[in-house]
Amino acid sequence: MSNSVDIDGRGVGTALSNIDIEKGGQQGPGNTNIDPSEPISRVIRWFRGATLWFSSTRQSEPPSPATTQSHWQQEEVSRIDGHPEGYPQLAAFIDSDESFLMCRRFGWLNSRVLLYRQDELVKLEETLIAMDDDDTAYDGGKTLKSREEDDGRKDIEEQVSRKTLINQIDTKLKEYHELISRVRTFVALKRPSARNFNSFKNWMIDQKPVTREEMQFIRHAGDFVALADGQEGGWFDGFVEDILTKIPKDLARKLFSGPEELAKSNDAYVHLYSRYRIDILVRLILTIITVVLLVVPTAVLYEVSGHAALKIGLIMLFTLLFSMALGILTKAKRHEMFAATAA
Question: Are strands 224-226 and 102-104 parallel, antiparallel or unpaired?
Fold first, then answer.
């Protein structure tokens, strides 16, 4: 029988007990001949058995802290396709990019409620004025000069007292002011770009995540507001993304889509680009345009000798081009444009 080692990982003693060694037959009691290499062979076989046992126990050990930390450092990406069809998938699509974060502001309903609350206050105001006039004619306006005396009157019921009316007015004013604050918040929000809204609408029509009746809200394009502020370049960022759709899709995704954007959807018609990478490209283009508008006039004026009127005309032309580029390609405010042009 040849040498065999059977390690089942139950302990060193068990492993070594399974080492079956046969070398030149069994030693009888009367056999005193001992092979000098026998002890060395036993040590070698014991060392091999211990090594195999140690390797097997290493496989069953718990993961190291470094392995555990790397597990928790892996980010989970919310996939659009990974959610059930319906509102869960629609919510995942809206969350996939801030450009799709839009909703209706219900401007008509807000106006109706605002007009209703306003008319309520008008009626309460008229009632208070009439009450003041009646008290002036009744006692010469004495109750109008003392709140305590007016509150303590016994000639009128509490339900129609001035105190009750003032409390009603205060309640309606609170509702009215809260409504005004809500309306002002929505009015301050800007409309989504036509590009972003059309992308959202096309996805809704193509995927049909909800019933036809509950998709009617997308028909009110003029009532939508964007909940996320756009980039500094505004429409120029969208223009750059439109250009990216004209180049091969694989190349565009490789250059301008990060791992997170690629993992969000397997739909061939959904293209999600990294905001960071788009912003770098836009900044690079704007930098080139700015340098051209600043350096080219200097070079042209250097080549033009004399002709003072021509030089003044060129200065005005390039200043106008710079202001136009600043106003069209960025979201610079009026005072910022004026300061940049004057500089």
Answer: antiparallel
Structure tokens at 183: 């309306």
Q: Which two tokens stand for residue 208?
A: 């049909």
Q: In the block, which residue shows the tokens 């960022």?
A: 237
Residue 224's H or E segment, with its range, is: strand 224-226
Neighbours of 264 (CB within 10 A): 22
Give the DSSP per-residue string, 109-147: HHHHHHHHHHHHHHHHHHHHHHHHHHHHHHHTTSGGG-H
Inter-residue contact 102 to 198 (CB < 8 Å):
no
Contacts of 230 (CB under 8 A, 6+ apart): 190, 193, 237, 331
DSSP 20: B
Alpha-carbon distance of 48 to 33, in angstroms, equals: 26
Calculate what percentage of the chain has a pLDDT beyond 70. 69
**Residue 169 CB: number of other CB atoms within 10 A?**
17
Residue 271 burial (CB count, 10 A): 17
What is the tens place of the pLDDT at every residue in 22-66?
334 444 444 444 454 455 566 556 655 655 554 455 444 455 555
- pTM to 2 decimal places: 0.59
